Amino acid sequence: MWHIMDKAKELGEKIAEEAEKFQPKTAEERREELAELTEDLSQTMEEATESAKEAYDRLAEESMEAMEAAVGAEMSAAGAESLLDQAVKYKGIDVFV
C-alpha cells in the first residue's frame, strides 16, 4: 500500500513540475530567456560566418589552382603549337632553298 502511495506522490510531483512550465512568466524571466536566445543566436551566427569564410577561402584557393593549371596547359599547348608552326615554316624554307 505504501508503494502505491509513493508512486502517486512521485507522479504528483512530476505533474506539478510540468505545470510550472506553463505558468505565465514574469517580465524578468522573459528578459532572461530573450537574453539567452539572443546569445545563442549570436554564437550561431558567428559560427556560420566563420564556416562560410573558410569555405569561401578554400573555394577561392581551389579555383586559383585550377585557373593556373588551365593557363599553364594552355600556354604549353600554345607553345607546342607555335613550335610546330615554326618547324613547318622552316621545313618549307628548306624545301624552297
Structural description of this entry:
This protein is mostly helical and 97 residues long. The protein has one domain. It is built from two helices and no strands. The chain is elongated and about 105 Å long. The termini are far apart. The mean pLDDT is 79.
Shape: elongated
Total number of domains: 1
Average pLDDT number: 79
Unreliably modeled segments: none
Percent of residues in helices: over 70%
Question: What's the tally of helices?
Answer: 2
Number of strands: 0
Biggest sheet: strands, sense, closure? none
**Alpha carbon gyration radius:** 38 Å
- Give the N-to-C terminal Cα separation: 123 Å
Strand content: under 5%
The SSE string, one letter per element, is HH
Which structural class do the helices and strands define? mainly alpha
Concise account of the structure shown:
The protein has helices spanning 2-21, 27-96. It has 97 residues and is mainly alpha-helical.
List keywords for this structure.
97 residues; mainly alpha; 2 helices
Helices and strands in order:
Layout: H1 2-21, H2 27-96
